[in-house]
Fold this protein.
Amino acid sequence: MEKTNLLNILLERATVRNFEKDEPVSEEDLKKILVAGIRAPSAGNIQPRTFIVVRDEKEKEQLYELCGKQAFMKDAPAWIVVCLDLHRHLKAAKLTGVDYDFTGILPYTLGVLDASLSLENMVIAAEALGLGSVIIGSVIEHPKKVKEILGLPEHCLALSILCIGYPKKKPKRREKWDYRTVVFENRYREIRLKDVQNYWRRLVLNGLKRSGRKPTKEEVEKACKARSYGATYAAHYKEDFIKETNKKLMEFLSEQSLLK
Ligand SMILES: Cc1cc2nc3c(=O)[nH]c(=O)nc-3n(C[C@H](O)[C@H](O)[C@H](O)COP(=O)(O)O)c2cc1C
């Protein structure tokens, strides 16, 4: 692939949430996507990650329900569960005569990084093939049930499902923080209220524009006030939910001997 094409894909990509249900992903393309996942960088090249292609309809139904019945999942013909997997590495070492402890916060963090790099490689590979995808992170909220459904061993955790398919139409790109709010030189720079307000106004404005007409200045101001940055995110990621899910996940990570 040409350099410029790859850059365009990176800059233009957006999450797809409406798929052509009856247009399957060919086995050849699916394999290319998985190989792109395998080829991702990895700390020490340990590659603590595993990809499970889910084809079984009953299994899909169970995962769909666990992930809050996000309707578009069902329209995506290909599903790949991306797992952090220290099990294979530990077993491979043991099978070759070495029994050592590669668990705890460092291997866990490296594993999450490695699996995330694979996930993004697969997202980009799908785009390069004319497909689109959505990452479904909700599996992390139900680690025990997902472990049972997928038959995961100790030292393994499902991080996300990548749902892939042909997009019905090109999705709109979402707003991102301004370059200067995110990119610093030499030292961290604190965010100011003005930066948040500028970002939020842009985001709200674009949301309003989706209705097909240019909103007035007053309408934008009103919408910004009605749904502030802080209030919107605090309502989406409710504190009780975060606390409860943190607890569940920490217990699971301990049970899985990933974190002690
Ligand atoms: C870890 C992770 C979990 C996500 N989980 C979900 C999800 O459960 N449902 C969903 O519709 N989108 C999910 N997404 C997609 C994000 O909502 C999306 O990336 C974000 O809104 C930015 O949009 P963009 O990808 O088009 O830039 C997830 C993305 C990530 C990285």
About this structure: Residues 131 and 254 are 37 Å apart (CA to CA). The two ends are 44 Å apart (CA to CA).
